[in-house]
Amino acid sequence: MGTAKEVKDLVQQAIDKGATTVEEVHQAIARLPIDVLERILPELPLAKTVGDVQKMTIGTIYDAIRLVNKAAGDIAEQLLAAGKKAAQTPRARST
């Protein structure tokens, strides 16, 4: 299966790619009613403003998911390194 670090990297990459894919779908679906409104009332500047705010808000949410994923990966990396170091440190024998 691989080392713990390889598994951690694989999971972290899968979450990151998954979040990006879901964000793309979310953005496309959320944009549909804005597109319809812009076709019906092309002179309505509010539609563009709402679309821009919506896009930014959705993007911010998925950026936060990717940031949390990175932070979790960094913590996991530190824990794996600490565990490896502890396993390599000779222990004093009690008599």
Tell me the domain tally: 1
- Please give the count of helices: 2
Shape: rod-shaped
How large, in whole angstroms, is the Cα Rg? 23 Å
Helix content: over 70%
Strand residue percentage: under 5%
Observed structural traits:
single chain; 95 residues; rod-shaped; 2 helices; mainly alpha
Structure description:
There is one protein chain. The protein has 95 residues and is mostly helical. The protein has one domain. It has two helices and no strands. The protein has helices at 4-40, 45-88. The model has no long low-confidence stretch (mean pLDDT 92).
Quick recap:
By secondary structure, this protein is mainly alpha-helical.
How are the SSEs placed, and which strands pair?
Layout: H1 4-40, H2 45-88
